[in-house]
Amino acid sequence: MLAKRLIPCLDVRDGKVVKGVQFRNHEIIGDIVPLAQRYAEAGADELVFYDITASSDGRVVDKSWVRRIAEVIDIPFCVAGGIKSVADAGKILEMGADKVSINSPALANPQLIAELNATFGQQCVVVGIDSFFDVASGQYQVYQFTGDESRTQKTQWLTRDWVAEVQRLGAGEIVLNCMNQDGVRQGYDLAQLKSIRDICRVPLIASGGAGTMQHFTEVFSTADVDGALAASVFHKGIIQISELKAKLIADGISIRP
Amino acid sequence: MAELVIVDTGCANISSVYFAVKRLGVEPVISADAKLIKQAERVILPGVGTAKAAMHNLAERDLISTLQGLQQPVLGICLGMQLLTAHSMEGDVACLGLIPGEVAPLNAAGLRLPHMGWNTLHSISQHPLLKGFTAQDYLYFVHSFAVVPSQYSLAQCHYGSDFAAVIGKDNVAGAQFHPERSGKVGARLLQNFLEWQL
């Protein structure tokens, strides 16, 4: 039976792993390669590396760390951040990444999703969506440039509409980051994930809000997501992956031991 | 003579296959040179993307008859496995025809596609490549098309329906999952391949 995936997310800035609260105040957690190796050995099912500087400040970013990760890691990994073209994606995949994830560049040029699909296949194309609940309108809306607070802005897309559009264009997987929950460890946004699950035919990954092991049980059993992404609970040692897997198996969730 | 040649198919997962073999202590050569491929002790045919694009790449590199004539152990990985069969419905393209079989859209019976993630095997045959494998082992899959089960299936996987996870005939074998991305279990398949004596 297909297992649900546990996906530590490593936010990368200048070659270091960092973590902020609600996308702000980034603190350095450690070097990429040893952290990646530690997670792979601890039982992570997949890793995501978000280069959080890349999309927001527009410079050419050194991605040689992708190759260093590919040398040591024997589980799949995805690279996100600053991938604006088929050529950018090709370089990352050539260095050994299994997938690329695009977010702000897909909003600026939705056709990029179709181009990546046609060139590398659907399985390589992950679309990350930063979704924020706007209390005034009562709607979930898509934000872009979330790596840099000064440039973060609301787009014209409602989250549901953008989820439908990226699937139409050929996305192979969607990572839904619920910004209201990010970094505050109060649990995944179950209501939103459940509603998006109903319209999402490709694998859906929950992101934002994991604080306890019970939050993972809830997101798998309530929202039926294919994977759960988390950062701080793993980086800070609040949750050990081995213990989390044992609990999820005991709770009846399909998990790779 | 190279111990192991990874065929340069122009596809994207070549580095990860290269590194996975290197972690097992073998220095592979990545090449599209027919002579080097023919002389290798073992050959890996990697591949991601579409069957049509990959067969086009192989034709462009003039490698089709070379691959069809190999006598040493050959391992196709993911799309590389699908290319070993006679035909793929993905782009309706003739493949290498080394192992009888057909590649068809995966019948996921309403489950999400692509079939992406860690899954288990069943109907595991006694074959040198599958030494040490059990139904409890998880392997990493990413695909939407699959080889229809046949007498050449060495192991199957279930996702909505059964499909061939490992196939083999004579000196040629293939795995639908990514051994290079399947942790220690995947490394076992690659190690078995390195030790496979015909």
UniProtKB/TrEMBL annotation, chain A:
What's the protein here called? Answer: Imidazole glycerol phosphate synthase subunit HisF
Q: Please tell me the species this chain comes from.
A: Alishewanella jeotgali KCTC 22429
Q: Where in the cell is it found?
A: Cytoplasm
Q: Where are the transmembrane segments?
A: none
Q: Does the keyword Oxidoreductase apply?
A: no
Q: Which family does it belong to?
A: Belongs to the HisA/HisF family.
The biological processes this protein is annotated with in GO are: L-histidine biosynthetic process
Give the record's subunit note.
Answer: Heterodimer of HisH and HisF.
Quote the pathway field.
Answer: Amino-acid biosynthesis; L-histidine biosynthesis; L-histidine from 5-phospho-alpha-D-ribose 1-diphosphate: step 5/9
Q: Name one GO molecular function term.
A: imidazoleglycerol-phosphate synthase activity
The entry's function note states: IGPS catalyzes the conversion of PRFAR and glutamine to IGP, AICAR and glutamate. The HisF subunit catalyzes the cyclization activity that produces IGP and AICAR from PRFAR using the ammonia provided by the HisH subunit.
Q: Which HAMAP family match?
A: HisF
Q: Which UniProt keywords apply?
A: Amino-acid biosynthesis, Cytoplasm, Histidine biosynthesis, Lyase
Record NCBIfam families:
hisF (TIGR00735)
List the Pfam families: His_biosynth (PF00977)
Task: Name the residues annotated as catalytic in the UniProt entry.
Answer: 11, 130
Question: EC annotation?
Answer: 4.3.2.10
Q: Gene Ontology terms, cellular component aspect?
A: cytoplasm
Does the UniProt entry include the keyword Cell cycle? no
State the reactions this protein catalyses.
5-[(5-phospho-1-deoxy-D-ribulos-1-ylimino)methylamino]-1-(5-phospho-beta-D-ribosyl)imidazole-4-carboxamide + L-glutamine = D-erythro-1-(imidazol-4-yl)glycerol 3-phosphate + 5-amino-1-(5-phospho-beta-D-ribosyl)imidazole-4-carboxamide + L-glutamate + H(+)
UniProtKB/TrEMBL annotation, chain B:
Name the pathway it acts in. Answer: Amino-acid biosynthesis; L-histidine biosynthesis; L-histidine from 5-phospho-alpha-D-ribose 1-diphosphate: step 5/9
Q: What is this enzyme's EC? A: 4.3.2.10, 3.5.1.2
Q: Which residues form the active site?
A: 78 (nucleophile), 178, 180
- InterPro entries this protein is in? Class_I_gatase-like (IPR029062), GATASE (IPR017926), Imidazole-glycPsynth_HisH (IPR010139)
Residues forming the Glutamine amidotransferase domain are: 12-194
Q: How does it assemble?
A: Heterodimer of HisH and HisF.
Role of this protein: IGPS catalyzes the conversion of PRFAR and glutamine to IGP, AICAR and glutamate. The HisH subunit catalyzes the hydrolysis of glutamine to glutamate and ammonia as part of the synthesis of IGP and AICAR. The resulting ammonia molecule is channeled to the active site of HisF.
Q: What is this protein called?
A: Imidazole glycerol phosphate synthase subunit HisH
Q: Which gene holds the coding sequence for this protein? A: hisH
